[in-house]
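Annotators were shown the component list below and the corresponding predicted structure, then asked to write short factual statements about the assembly.
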Amino acid sequence: MAVKFDVNGAQNVEVSKKLPCEKPLAEQLEIMEEYTRVHREASNGPKELREIACLKVLYPRLFRKIEDQDLVAGRLDFLPIGFGCVTSVGGVGHYCVFNKLLAFKDQLETEEQKARVDVLYDYWLDHDLKTKYCREVLTEDTIGRFIDVNYPLIATARLSGMMLDYPKLLDLGIGGLRDLLKGKLENEPENPFYLAGLECLTLFEDCAEALAEKASIQSAEASEARKTELLKIVSDLRKIRTDKPETFPQALQLFWLYAMLAGVINYARLDDCLGPFLAKDIEEGRMDQQDAYRYVKCLWTMIENRRTTVNGRVIVGGKGRKHPKEADVFLHTALKVAKDCRYVEPQFTLRVTKDTSEEIWDEAMDALGAGATYPTLYNDEVNVPAVAYGMRVDEKTAEMYVPFGCTEFVIQGQSTGTPNICMNLLKMMTIFMNGGIDPVDGMRKNREIPCPPLSEYKSFEEFYAAYKRLLDYYMDLSIQAQYYSYEVMNRDVSFLFTSLLTDDCIERGKALLDGGVRYLGGTNEIYGLINASDALWAIKDLVFIRKKYTLDQIEKAMLANFRGYEELRADLWACDKYGNDLDTADGMATDLYEYVAKGVRQRGIDAGMQYFLVVISNNQLNTEWGRKTGASPDGRYMGQYMNPANNPQGGANTSGPTAMLNSLAKIDARYHAGSVQNIKFSPEFFAENREAIKLLFKTYFEQGGSHVMVTVVGRGVLEDAVKHPENYKDLIVRVSGFSAVFVNLEADIQQELMSRVLYD
Amino acid sequence: MTEPVLKIFDIQRFSIHDGPGIRTTVFFNGCPLHCPWCSNPESQKGRTELMHFDRKCTHCGRCFQACPNGAISFSPETGPVIDRSKCRRCGSCARVCLSDAMRMTGKEVTVEEVMATVRRDRHYYEKSSGGITVSGGEPFLQSEGLAALLKAAREEGITTAVETTGNVSAESFRKGLGLVDTWLFDLKHADPEILKEVTGGNLSLIVENLKQALREKDSQVIVRVPVIPGFNFDEKSLTGIFRLTLASGGRQVDLLPYHVLGKSKYAQLGREYAQEGEKGLDKKELIPYAAIGQRMGLNIMISGKDPAVIGG
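Structure shown to annotators:
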């Protein structure tokens, strides 16, 4: 049955707006037409060769001019039609972002041009990768598209979070990679992956040369000082066109240009990749600290300017670095840059171990105290063994874990981990309690899973077990939809640039989703976990222990959104809540978490994947999904935001930061691939008590905490920013899996942030 | 022997201003003094109190209907108005309040119940050299219970601190000896007349107890001085306190600048705030006095911090 869905809907969180394309509209249209023509004509041959043919249409043409502050080259525009990995830059595979194409059409002047757009629109309705996936997977009642919050589960096709093997790139250079591929080709001369891979390297060379020419032309008009910089860019580009990099600027240029062409938006462990070049340049007198700072700041700016909202990860520190001493040179510089820049991206990520130096801790506290919201801190002592268990790899491999996006882990250069599923556990509960009908829209969403009248449950265990049946059903859907997303993507595309730097694609002669990637992993974002577990506790306590209400009474009150049931609602809200270090509510949270997390994990293993793990992250979906989730037994109103990530519902934690962190640390990291923890302090409190707060974090980490991210913001400041946004254009807050300029967020998302407990 | 019941009014975790490191502070109810600047006025009478939080009140009128003593009058415009002379602090209004605007403070708990919370943060204490602090009110008004709590903490390897006015009988005070790692000993004035008049305190009793604490071998004594404008925020008063500290054998003094954080509680309790209009002091304002104390040979801190750090 064909399911109806809106192909024109927005597809991702886009708080930060991108710069408009610098090409004239007519030229943009020509490029898209050319892309479409090549796509159509190459459709009968191997997908690898079609992909490289299409890429050649886009590059080097879509590179923008080099900005005055750039010390390396490589800024890209994206069109509504093109090729990519993720929705944040361009789209997925051979893509058309229909809402952007329509917006593009609106800007055109002539009817003739508009008609040409219509032709493209119609062609891509049948060829846009994501649309094809949606047609095959979405249903009327259970599975919605990203991001349709009317559904309990949403699914998409994308290849998010790839972190490439940059050490290999920097070690071999383009020429070395070419030799490697040529060697492989001798044994398999027809292998389309190798053939297309070699063409990718040629395309890289062409892009490097084209950018060198751009820089050279721009240098003619430039001031003396800028001219020197541009000519350096020219010579560095010509060097790394084929050769291995020898200096930090060359290494940075090679890494950056490759990342641009691969379309990746997370940048791996750059301290360990780039640190040795930086340390050597400093040691041998080619650069000083000030130069280092300028180059790293340039990198920061170029990442910020890509505006992916929830990505842009740069990871430093932690276990498994090959060059820890040199890496720290980069790390210290990056900490200073992060503190000064206070950009929303990169999402600067510091992995700490029990041996992380006080100096690094202090620099991190400096940046956080300055309101940068970075670095966000990950605890290797917990995460490395947890990743080893969760992803079923050895500890050495697990040491190469890297968080991307909102927090999802992948193994750098070795695994996929894209979260193509999101599940709303709380919405499922409201559906389950209402006989299978979603109280928000009156639609049945339980398929064949029984949701009998609530009066039939004689014990809490029976009630809970019945809820779990609905969870099971949706977990089954989740693995099918995730796995199928890989099949659909693999049918159409190879993600060539990404595959070339992902183990073991070259070794096996296969693109990553074609059997090339060493660890085929994936993630499932779960939402409303804490609301659901608090709800379960409230039901257990009020209905089955204290017997103050019946399930029917509670359900009736929920359907009325507690109007006329204020007392009942107050009783629900007064029940023990997660985040206060109480065995009651926290015990329920860990129980529900483990049921879902283990259930998802086992389904991944059964499906033949290396891992399929939940992540308890969130961007702002906790608020958006809350808008379409009925009132719930934790005392939450219909339409109200849900709890952020693995944190308590705003205002529910009243026992101070140690109690909250103790609650957070109870979530066993072995069953998830990332879980986000927010904590918020006032600047005065943070500055006055830095030592105590540092020890607070360290103790939390020793007790099993996997992660913490810190917002330092004054009491009343967010409230004032709502009233006077014009005064707070650079106020950055941590939403959950990303940072944003507060005044750019929607009103209820701002409300959710303000509801979180501030320690002062 | 039955386990002693403790009358407390709060337990605060991640307490970082009452002794070293990260601590959990247990606030005992009841105080022999009536300092007009007190930031915990709900503790002064040592009984449960009704507090009304106007900011949270939705003017629903449920409290007015629930009050069995006719102590609450009500109109939708004003919200509830409590006649404290009629209120018997029965808690009927707090039980029906849906917005947590009527709240009873003060409760009775066992030592084990307190310890169940305190031990939850033991790892934070170990990491930061913190522990339990018993404050108040005046802990020694419940000296049996205090001793039992301190012993229980010590038995679990948790270090102890007690914040005291010292204004209790020597006999009561002795019950704490040998059980306290850090004394936070208040010395508010060196003039017995002024002290008596303003706070109701008995200076000679206080000083005798201070000397007892200072004689303890394995504990640290920090003399704490709340610096209050119009009471002791002047060279003469503070010098007097320094001198008395030295004479008693004390070496460490912590100056605590007057703050107004407890002010709103007076309205919530339906009481007048005697310090109305007075502004809080900045730490920097105490630096000259710290210098005087240092010249006299004392180790002076301001709010637990080295004055040199504050000055810089």
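Statements collected:
1. The radius of gyration of chain A is 26 Å.
2. The CA atoms of residues 495 and 566 of chain A lie 55 Å apart.
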